[in-house]
Amino acid sequence: MRRNQKKHTGSENEPNLKGTFISVGVLGLIIIISWFGVFALFISR
Amino acid sequence: MHLHKYEKIWLISGVVALALFLIILGFGAFYLGTHPQSHGITIDPANIEAHEAFQSENLGLTKVDEDKYIVNVVATAFNYDLGVDEDGNAVKNISIPKGSSVLFQVVTPDVVHGFNIAGTNVNMMVEPGYISSMEVEMKQTGEFTLLCNEYCGVGHHMMFATVEVY
After folding, report:
1. Which of A35, B112, B137, B159 is 20–30 Å from B74 (CA)?
2. A12 pLDDT exceeds 80?
3. A17 and B7 in contact by Cβ < 8 A?
4. Do A39 and B24 touch (CB under 8 A)?
5. Domain containing A27: what range?
6. Residue of chain B nearest A38, judged by CA positions
7. Is the residue at A10 inside a domain?
C-alpha cells in the first residue's frame, strides 16, 4: 500500500500534461489578447 | 498537496491575470470615473418636464462652456426629441466640435430604449423612471448615427438621428 502511494506521488510517474498545458495556454492567450483588444478600442474611442 | 509543475504555472498565471484585470477595473472606476450610465438618479416618468433639463426649450445640444456641451434628450416610441430649430422643425442632426466634452442626459416616459452613437463609447440603456447620463470626450471626427439598440416596438428601426463631430 505504502509502496503504491509512493509510486503515485513520485515525480517520475507524473502524468504527461504537456498537451493539456499547451491547449489551456493557447486558450488563455486568446482570452487575454481579445480582452486587451476590446479595452484598447474602448480607450481609443 | 502535490501539484504538477504545469498546474502550478497555470494557477499562477490565472492569479496574475485576475490581479491585472482588477487593477485595470480599479483604474477605470476611480481614475477614469467610469460608472453605470443609470446609477440611481430617478425621475417621475409621467412628469419628466418637472425636471428642468427635460423641458422642451432645454432639449438638444447646449453649449455650457468652451469645449463643454450638454445634450438633453427625451426618447419616446419612436423618436429622439432633440428639440426644435429656429424654424420650429424637429432637430435630427447635431454638430459637436472634436475634442469637446459632452454630457448626455436621456430619459424616457414610456418603455426601455437604447441610446447608442455607433462607433463611439456612447451606449446606454434608457429606462422609464431613471435619468441615464454619461460624459464623453468626442475624440474622432465623422458622422455618427445615434440609434436605439433596445427593441422598443414596431417603429424601433425608425428611431435614429445623426451626430456630426467636426
Report:
1. B137
2. no
3. yes
4. yes
5. 17-45
6. B121
7. no
